[in-house]
Amino acid sequence: MKLERDLLRQVINLLAIVAAFGTNVAANLAPIKGLNIGEISNTIFKEVLIIPASYAFAIWGVIYLGLFSFAIYQVLPPQRQNSLLRQVGYFLVVSSVAQIIWVFCFLSRWFLLSLVAMLVILIPLMIIVHRLGMGKKKISRLDKWLIQIPLSIYLSWISIATIVNAASVLSYRGWNGWGISPPIWTVGVLILAGVLALWMGTVRADIAFALVYLWALVAIALRHLEQPIISGTAGGIALLLLLVLLWSYLHRSKIVSSSEL
Length: 261
Fold this sequence. Notes:
This protein is mostly helical. It has two domains: 1-175, no CATH class; 178-254. It has helices spanning 2-29, 37-43, 59-75, 83-88, 91-107, 111-132, 141-172, 182-202, 207-223, 228-260.
């Protein structure tokens, strides 16, 4: 009976990932109301300063490459009783279904509902990463590359997307930022994002998560070269993050080498 439940979980996770990918493809080929997600971002939300340069969204190719690798790996018979995959459970299914709903809401211009859907994508992914014990458990190389890293990259980008989604909704609803200028708000959010990336990259040793933030920060800096306060802040945090990640990696490598002597 338990093996049957494992098989059901494997199949449903595979189908959920395929369905979410298919929905995103369809949303770009035949978008509701004529504009796809990128076109809405570049028109309705063109004044939202936290949105990165358009090329940054190419990371979805990496995300889905990772998710499909995960989907294929987890559905293999030898992985049926993998304890890590049992920890993932159906949380990724919830995120995938919420992503489908998000696409529909965003394309329909139901932006507040799209933010709710985004949170439903984010929270299960946070639960998954917590349950997998990123940076705390020793696991096989295959489990690391085909379970932990793909899900970490997905969570990282969705956490960034949640920030962007929230900023977009506030802008759409005419929020005045309590009198604080948009560039100052953007700088504050960038600093908080940098702190989160540094914490995940060092304390949790989740390099994949931090590298996605690095990617987004550089894209934000390049999009706003005409606004030095934003470009300089994003670029400076990206450089700091890169240096800290390099130091952290070399430090851990030195510890591992010493322990092997």
